[in-house]
Amino acid sequence: MLLLLVSALSFAQEFEVSGKIVDTESNPLESATVYVEKIADSSLVTYTISEKDGSFLLKGNTESKAVNLYVSYAGFKPYRKQIEITKTQDVGAISLDILDNALDEVTLTATRAPISVKQDTLEFNANSFNTRQDANLEELMKKLPGVEVDSDGNITVNGKPVSRILVNGKEFFGNDPKIATKNLPKEIIDKIQVVDTKTRSEEFTGKAGDSENKTINIELKEDKNKGWFSRATAGGGTDDRYELSGIANYFKDDLRVSVLASSNNINSSGFSFDEVFDMMGGNARSVRFNSNGSFSINGTGFGSSNGITKSETGGFNFVNEWDNGMELTADYFYGGSDTETRTRIERENILPDSRYFTNSTSSSNLLNDSHRATLRYEIEFDTLTRLSIAPRFNANIGTSYRDRFEENLDENMQLQNTTLIDETEDLTSLDFSNDINFIKRFGSRGSYFQLDLDHAHSKQENENIYFSESTFVNNPENDIVQDQFIDQDEDSNSFSVGASKRSVLADKFFLDINYEFDTQKSSNTRSVFDAVDGEYTNFNELLSNDFEFRSFKHTPNAGLNYEGEKWRISSEVGLLSTTLKTENFMEDIRFDNTFNNVYVDADLRYSPERSKSISIGYSTNADVPSVRQLQPVVDRTNPTNIIIGNPELEPTFNQRVNLNYRNFDFASRSGIFAYAYFNFTDNQVAATSSVDNFVRTTTYTNVDGVINGNLGASYSKSYKKDATEFRYRIGANGGYNRNVGFINAVQYESDQFTVTPTLRLTYAIDEVLEIEPGYSATFNDIQYDINSGRDQNYVNHSLSLETTTYWPKNVVFGNDISYNKFGNVAPGFDSTSLLWNMSLGYQFLKDNATVKVKVYDLLDQNVDTRRLVGDDYIQDVNNLVLQRYAMLSFTYKLSSFGGGKAPSRRGSRMIRM
């Protein structure tokens, strides 16, 4: 790596170009794009964005003696000048002339600006960023300034997460961004546009979106917007492992059709098509650190969650838009799975004055078929009126076979009781919802009326043949055998109506008046029948129930909102009134009460420059307890852990304060990002347990004073010198959690602190090499106000290395290595782990075909071990996981594109605001 770095930099010359961008009247132009290209092949050397006063400083490194200097700004004629490369030079004031027809598209196409800022839209020109010939959207995203893609495919732009990815203004196969990033080839992409995430309603009304989340819109090239591309993979490996998958996409102007299907037994969704590791992922980072300092080990990137799954999936997505203002989006997805699990648990239960131990082993086999269908129909009656109807349907039908053996021992490790459980359960769940949205705009200044009607219905049926046998060593009179048939039905209906009216008080200053009403009715019927002479005929009234729960929530509020370029102020203040009604029909017990709180949702955002902002927010919310927490029926499914609900629970009231700061400097390719949030919760639903004769009985109550918060900051910087790039990111995250709970009915408070510094490096040579080492440490400190001997203080370390080489030509060699050391593990569990995943692929037939050999867990050390540290327990868990295998796979892709009209302005409406 050192030799490659030295050779790449030996003949490169550093340079700086400064100046100022102004209009014909010498007014400064902020956010103009300034960049230089090589004269020989027009390849991009470096670029920057002008400051508020129009000044710019362009830093770069090139072997060329002279380059072309370009300036691009929406609405102005492009500027070009050839300059000689010197260490420093000042080109003075560059005056731009106004275009006669100031269309953003004409300006961008004419100058090929690598990056442009248009109002709230950050736009990248895909052709300006070099990638491998066979690159996908994710690889292209990694080349963009301020954009980071982690090993799981999650994207952030200038420190803010990307929650949606659109193609020509429309969602690409539902709401999973990774299907788009992994499967869209770079060759068809024209522009990448980044905006604040907006709902469909906000897109139509022009209301400001969520500034803390980003949406990426991919605009296709005009000549690629009519045609199709497809890709398929087939592979077989050791231990009878296999994979089959395919995806195909058809584009024709505003019409898009996508289909996909897969089958495998390697715990994969089947649609990642990672260039290096395909369905295995490409991520050996197998350790997940939880907020309370606990950790889990598994092959996260390889889908090796608890158990081994054989799955079959298939689906399609349809999008079309007609000239009469109608738009239809529909998709269907089927998933079939066969999942086998095995789990071993060693748990230390901690009481205020004693402790005892629980050991258990369990296994299960779940067979499940799922169906998901969504539809969205929109019609614009005119440019000011729109109606949207969006029904959704989900169904799951499955059978589960489970068995469990559990034993409890006292603190002297003497056996106290054992329980054997064996059950077979048929499960059916159906969910349907429909959202209707009507918007009427008044003029072009932002005034509108909006009406929302939402309805949801869910139904779940469980039929369980349940057998358990519990033996108590010192109290044999308590021995119990349960042979039962349990029929449980849950029904839930919810309905909400919301009305909003926005009035314009002044330019960008609005008055919002809102009202929302939500109601929910849930019922739970549980019928338990004991076996008599092999027949389940004896109705057990004690363990059965017929329970109904209703909630009513009124939220009238009003607020003043200002949506300027630098200042954005939103405030909504009102009443949050919640009524809970419960009724136990079997015992004729009722509960009815109303709780009133202040409703606040306020945000303040200041953006002195396009790439710099600071925001602060405060909000309140109330959540109703679940039916299972409310229903007073005794649940003896586990005879040594009995659960009963509390119908007098109150709604949880939460107050949230958040702060965000970001500053990305395009000139130096560096960014600082910082955030903080705190949640203050009253009436938190907490479990309270009591232990008698090593049998735990749990119910629920409300507690006050729960706090959780997080704060962190990071700094990133990148250096680009021709084909060589170096990036680094350093950061730290701190967490605090104050929990209030009960240990054997005694109330306690616990304080948990975590601090996690991280370092991530990337070194890349275009089409040759990528190296990404990383390191993080988590410092944990947990304190309790009772039983202080339980206080803990320890450190976990994680070290990773990802390498990918593209040399020799057409050969892709990838390695993903992770080493972890844990500071708090139980005896018998390793304190270190080392995982290594490897892939070697060869591309041929004009890069349309790839043959690949990949090895999952090369060192055969994959484990799923977790230490969970709770307030009244310490638990070590070991799960069945997918183990080492090797696989040979073949991937082939086909595509055909023809000319077509440019993406419609209607389809790209979202990014024009």
Written description of the protein model:
With 913 residues, this protein is mainly beta. 4% of the residues lie in helices and 66% in strands. It is built from 6 helices and 50 strands. The chain has a 26-stranded antiparallel β-barrel. Strands 8, 9, 10, 11, 12, 13, 14 and 15 form an 8-stranded mixed beta sheet that branches. A 4-stranded antiparallel beta sheet has the order 3-2-5-6, with helices on one face. The radius of gyration is 30 Å and the shape is globular. The two termini are 46 Å apart. The model is unreliable at 102-110, 281-305 and 900-913 (pLDDT under 50).
Summarize the structure.
With 913 residues, this protein is mostly beta strands. It is 4% helix and 66% strand. It is globular, with a radius of gyration of 30 Å.
Keywords:
single chain, 913 residues, mainly beta, 26-stranded antiparallel beta barrel, eight-stranded mixed sheet, 6 helices, disordered C terminus
In whole angstroms, the N-to-C terminal distance is 46 Å
Number of helices: 6
Label the structural class.
mainly beta
| Unreliable residue runs | 102-110, 281-305, 900-913
User: Over the alpha carbons, how many angstroms does the gyration radius reach?
Assistant: 30 Å
Mean pLDDT: 85
Strand content: over 45%
Helix fraction by DSSP (H/I, runs of at least 4): under 10%
What about the largest sheet?
Answer: 26 strands, antiparallel, barrel
Principal-axes geometry comes out as: globular
Oligomer: single chain
* Secondary structure: number of strands: 50
